[in-house]
Design goal:
The chain is α+β, with helices and mostly antiparallel strands. The chain is built from 8 helices and 4 strands. The protein has 2 domains: 71 residues, 3-Layer(aba) Sandwich (Glutaredoxin); 132 residues, Glutathione S-transferase Yfyf (Class Pi), Chain A, domain 2 (Up-down Bundle), CATH 1.20.1050.10. The chain has a 4-stranded mixed β-sheet with strand order 2-1-3-4. It is globular. The model has no long low-confidence stretch (mean pLDDT 95).
Amino acid sequence: MIVYGSSMSPYVRKVLAFGAEKGIELEVRPIGLGSDDPEFRQASPFGKIPAFRDGDFTISDSSAIVAYLEAIRRDPALIPVEAKARALTIWYDEFADTIIGACGTKIFFNRIVAPRFLKREGDLAAADRAECEELPPLLDYLERMIPESGFLVEDRLTLADVAVASPFANFRHLGLGWDLSRHGKVKAYVDSILARPSFKHWVEREAAFLARASAP
């Protein structure tokens, strides 16, 4: 099974961590956004990452990919069957992808991707607004919602945790600080999930890559 993309993307990282937690071996083919690679374009007609191939089956979008992985290997179950738990898991996946992810993209793209890899100035004002105005309410929400168990749904690891933690690796690469008096529970939660082997391998590789990219 092949995943096209870079783990620097929280969506690609989500798929890779999900697969690792399921015990599914995934081959990563490094592909950038908008690549014209024909195999990639067959799997992702609109050039979005991640894209996925399993034999002659192709699909794109991280949520579609993890749904496929869940279906082909039921254990361990990372998408609950019980109705309320399943709905909550899908909500957190959507929250991570479209709300946290959108906020994080404004910060990461403008401070890291644009200047280091596209060799052009990012919109730093947009990044600052996202960090100072958009991100704190999202952290406030998570601070209220994280159970004492340290897992968002059913007091065990699910897709909800994999999806929500993934964008925070990008925040870590940015060196964003934490107001521990306000968001201490979120930080402990994120640190715990990102310390899992399924994430740790990729986050450390990304950090090393960014260090090399920023070296003179």
